[in-house]
Structures are given as structure tokens and as C-alpha cells.
Amino acid sequence: MSKRDFISVAGLTPDSLAALLDSADAFKTGRASQQLAGKAIAMLFQKPSLRTRVSFDIAIHQLGGHPIYLGPDEVGVGRREPVEDVARVLSRYVQGIVARVFAHDVVVQLAQHAAVPVVNGLSDSEHPCQALADLMTIRERHGRLRDLVIAFVGDGNNCAASLGLGAALSGAHYRIASPPDYQLPTALLDAIDRIGRVTGASVEVTQNPSAAVAQADAVYTDVWTSMGQEAEADLRKLAFAHYQVTPELLAKAKPGALLLHPLPAHHGEEIARGMLDHPASVVFDQAENRLHAQKAVLADLFGEA
Ligand code: CP
Ligand code: NVA
User: Fold this and answer.
1) What digits encode the pLDDT tens for the residues 237-293?
2) Which end of the chain is more exposed for a tag (fewer CB within 10 A), N or C?
3) What is the pTM of this model?
4) Are 78 and 55 found together in one domain?
5) Do 37 and 69 reside in the same domain of the chain?
6) In a domain, 93, yes or no
7) pLDDT at residue 4 above 50?
8) Residue 4 covered by a domain
9) What is the CATH number of the domain that holds 296?
10) What residue ranges line ligand 1, CB within 6 angstroms?
11) pLDDT exceeds 50 at position 305
12) Would strands 66-70 and 96-100 be described as parallel, antiparallel, or unpaired?
């Protein structure tokens, strides 16, 4: 069988996403597997990381494999050496690659040229492993995803894109409030809409955070300035000034609504100070669930024993 990759949530189906979430739950409640015994996985990172780096390292170890971290200053993907050559060389040493990149096309090219599975550990366009952990966290608290309202407040970024696709595949309604120049790309919204026509999900774009959050089951936010956009930070602070998730905004959601954030948080910007400790906050469950969700992805890509 030819190798498979995990590059975008759009590559999943409603059933394959649900199966990954079930598998993640099973890992969380103690399922053991040595799926990666004797296998080495390269972790090729162009950007910094806490959660992705540590959770993949531990996941690979716990599945019996050997992680090799290659940080931003080591390989020089596309700089010291073309992406295509990096992919082909790594394929001679390791059995899988987890890549964190700037341009999404780099992870696509890695997957095209590698003979081994490639997992997107975040690109400028998507963060699919994060979305799995997000959906897992919402599902374990609410018991389901279908027909829930998931509200995203802030930048139409990588996390917003992957979450929107995952919500649509799960039959959940996605509302996203962003300033006019920072909305999800039209092609992505069209993709969410297409999936929703099959699953019964919907997507709504607004500039009004209160409208997005009204009676929502989950409220999600992420940084205004993502990695690689640091030069725009001042401009973005102005554009997003009215997009902070505060206790008052969260109070417009349904009673029992969850507060999510992929972390790292910029306290006092997209999220008011102290909000990670709000009773609605599940952000540390979300961070933990990265580990379980990624074990599910790795076990899936490397085939069941
Ligand atoms: N949420 C997340 O991906 O965190 P890191 O950037 O620390 O990996
Ligand atoms: N949108 C953020 C997510 C970090 C996990 C970024 O890309 O920097």
C-alpha cells in the first residue's frame, strides 16, 4: 500500500475523522501500542514549539519509536538545501517526518517527495493536529460534536482553518468573527461550505464577536500575530482591538460553554488576563489531548499491528 500523509484536515472524511477521535480517546484511557517499534521519526521544525515538539516526542517514544528533532537552525530547508532533496535524504534514514513550516507548500512538497509519511505539525495555512485535539476536547466535554455551535474569535489563521474544516466534517456549526482584512481565505470557506452540505454543518462569517459567540457551545481564540508575522504585530493590535475574549464576551455563550485556545496565549491581547483559569477554560486539557490525538495519527499512518 502506498504511504499516506496527514497534511490537511481536508484530507479526512467524516468517518476517518471520527475514527481518529475514537482512537485518541482510547489512547487517553490507556490503550497501549508499539506501532512505531524500530522506527525513527524526524521532527523537522522551521519554527519554535513547546506543545508540538514535546507531545510528538513523547508520543513517538510511547509508541516504541525514536524521535529525532531537527530545529530551525539545523537543516535550512529550502535555504541550505532544496525541500525535495531534504525529503529524499530523510526518507533513507527515517520512517516518518513531522514538519513545522512557514509556507504550507513546503509541507506539501515534503509529502510529495518523501517516500515516508509526512505529518503537518503546523504551517502558515493549517494546524491539523491541533484541530484533532480541539475537537477531541470539545467532544469529551459535550459528549458530541454534531449540531454544536463552535465560535472562533480573531484571526482567520491556520488554527481557525483546520478547526473550521474539522467542525464541518463533524456536523458542527462554525461561526468566525474576524476584522475585514483578516478573514479566512475564500477557498477555505468554500471548502468548509462544501463539506457542510454533506454533513449538515454550516459556516458563518461575521465581523462581530458578540454575534459569533451568542449561545455558542464553545468559544475559541488564538493569537492575533502568528509565528512569522511579528513585523505586523503593531498593525494587528489595532485591527484586532475589539476582538479580545473577555469574561463579558464569554458570558454571551451558552451556559456550560467551553473556552479554548491552542496556546501559546498572549495574555491581555486576544484573551483577557486570567481567562485561562476561567471555569469555562479547557485549554490545558486541549494541550494534553495533543499527545493522545497525535498517537492516533501516528498509529493510523503506520498501520494497525
Ligand atoms: N499549540 C501549539 O502548537 O503549540 P506550540 O507552538 O508550542 O507547539
Ligand atoms: N496561529 C499560531 C498558532 C500557534 C500554535 C501560530 O501560527 O503562531
Assistant:
1) 999 999 999 999 999 999 999 999 999 999 999 999 999 999 999 999 999 999 999
2) N
3) 0.98
4) yes
5) yes
6) yes
7) yes
8) no
9) 3.40.50.1370
10) 49-52, 122, 130, 262-264
11) no
12) unpaired
